[in-house]
């Protein structure tokens, strides 16, 4: 009955257009009253502050700001041109370019939203002009945006690291191979669909000249190597790497004279807005974890798991199914803050590595960006391009299958996530 009341209130607030962060806070506060734990709300400010007083979280606004600046300095355009130079001449070439650009952009921003916003405005119209169906162009843009939070640097991995006290550098290194596997799966699928549906290849006159394109793209292409290399080899902390990305974006924009004071202020305002939402969600998540602890929910979960003999991969599959369902209808930051402290400690106790679990959780939730009924990436593409939401969903089905196949592969073979951080001495 309590759960039904809370769900009804949350649904009503969402229908009224209240922001997700505030809905989450209101829902958990109501839960304290309905479960007769209201007296513990006196310690709520301390719990919320403790959840945000995490050193690793300082890197998050810097990478978000770097992504915002990249979108306003012409760097995205240079990355698209470089990807076009590499893959644009093949059949379905602009689809390959879309995926490749997401890989390059992921190594700078770590944000699916930044990827979707950039490519929906630049590459989708270009694909449509070349003869692609607009819905397909939007679908592959949404699908490739999933790569952004998996290839380091990753904003969602920073949040997971803060919640579970896991080394962010190890998470970054562990996400590289799964992110590249996602890109490979999407490129193979795009090639097959291009052959099946007769997608056009790039025209010779559309391929940009080699040296000017390379010269403009090199600063952006060097950033992922500098950021990731500095973090995993201990030269820089994630926070210093984020600051380096911001400075590089400003230098590139200033050198090219493609950023104005208005762009600078808008990017800063957007970053502050996003960080405010994230921190409110994180604060609400800390109160959820505290309420669950008061109600001894983690102990109940551990007892139920043992009683049902849900150990090893059976428990891991159960966790993945929970995240799949949550990813379909809940904001990924909310799902991460709510569920991770409850389910992941038991998996770690059963012998699964926290870094492998972090990559699996982040990949699973990020795929939720392209799964209905919520599908944040689908909503963004639909809004920007004017495509029908459900038409995009139908086009996305093969891409969803491919990405879930990568998730299963990464789950079945832990070395796909753990081999690289081990080789770098991070584990």
From TrEMBL:
Keyword set includes Acyltransferase: no
InterPro entries in alphabetical order: DctM, TRAP_DctM
Main location: membrane
Keywords, ordered alphabetically: Cell inner membrane, Cell membrane, Membrane, Transmembrane, Transmembrane helix, Transport
Compartmental location: Cell inner membrane
GO CC term, one of those recorded: plasma membrane
Residue ranges of the TM segments: 49-67, 103-124, 136-163, 169-195, 216-235, 241-259, 271-295, 315-345, 357-384, 396-420
Gene Ontology molecular function: any one: transmembrane transporter activity
Residue intervals of the TRAP C4-dicarboxylate transport system permease DctM subunit domain: 9-415
Membrane topology term: Multi-pass membrane protein
Role this protein plays: Part of the tripartite ATP-independent periplasmic (TRAP) transport system.
Family, per entry: Belongs to the TRAP transporter large permease family.
Subunit (UniProt): The complex comprises the extracytoplasmic solute receptor protein and the two transmembrane proteins.
Name of the featured protein: TRAP transporter large permease protein
Lineage: Bacteria, Pseudomonadati, Pseudomonadota, Alphaproteobacteria, Kordiimonadales
């Amino acid at each position: 009955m309590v759960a039904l009341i809370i769900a009804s209130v949350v649904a009503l607030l969402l229908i009224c257009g209240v922001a997700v962060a505030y809905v989450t806070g209101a829902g958990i506060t109501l839960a304290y009253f309905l479960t007769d734990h209201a007296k513990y709300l006196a310690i709520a400010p301390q719990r919320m502050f403790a959840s945000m007083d995490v050193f690793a979280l300082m890197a998050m606004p810097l990478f978000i700001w770097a992504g915002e600046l990249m979108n306003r300095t012409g760097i995205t355009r240079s990355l698209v041109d470089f990807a076009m130079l590499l893959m644009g001449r093949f059949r379905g070439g602009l689809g390959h370019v879309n995926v490749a650009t997401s890989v390059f952009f992921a190594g700078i921003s770590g944000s699916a939203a930044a990827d979707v916003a950039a490519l929906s405005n630049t590459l989708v119209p270009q694909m449509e002009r070349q003869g692609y169906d607009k819905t397909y162009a939007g679908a592959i843009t949404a699908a490739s945006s999933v790569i952004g939070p998996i290839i380091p640097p990753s904003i969602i991995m920073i949040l997971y690291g803060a919640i579970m006290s896991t080394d962010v550098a190890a998470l970054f290194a562990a996400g590289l191979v799964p992110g590249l596997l996602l890109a490979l799966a999407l490129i193979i699928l795009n090639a097959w669909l291009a052959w099946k549906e007769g997608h056009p290849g790039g025209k010779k006159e559309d391929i940009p000249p080699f040296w000017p394109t390379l010269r403009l793209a090199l600063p952006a292409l060097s950033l992922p190597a500098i950021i990731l290399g500095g973090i995993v080899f201990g030269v820089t902390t994630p926070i210093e790497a984020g600051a380096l990305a911001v400075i590089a974006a400003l230098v590139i924009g200033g050198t090219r004279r493609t950023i104005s004071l208005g762009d600078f202020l808008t990017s800063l305002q957007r970053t502050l807005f996003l960080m405010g939402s994230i921190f409110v969600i994180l604060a609400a998540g800390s109160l959820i974890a505290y309420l669950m602890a008061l109600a001894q929910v983690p102990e109940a979960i551990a007892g139920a798991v043992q009683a049902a003999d849900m150990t090893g991969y059976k428990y891991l599959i159960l966790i993945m199914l929970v995240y799949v369902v949550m990813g379909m209808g809940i904001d990924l930051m909310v799902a991460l803050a709510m569920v991770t402290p409850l389910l992941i400690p038991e998996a770690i106790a059963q012998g699964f590595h926290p870094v492998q679990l972090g990559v699996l959780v982040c990949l699973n939730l990020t795929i939720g960006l392209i799964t209905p009924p919520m599908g944040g990436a689908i909503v963004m593409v639909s809004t920007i391009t004017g495509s029908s939401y459900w038409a995009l969903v139908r086009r996305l089905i093969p891409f969803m299958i491919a990405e879930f196949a990568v998730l299963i592969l990464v789950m079945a073979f832990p070395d796909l996530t753990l081999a690289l951080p081990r080789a770098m001495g991070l584990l």
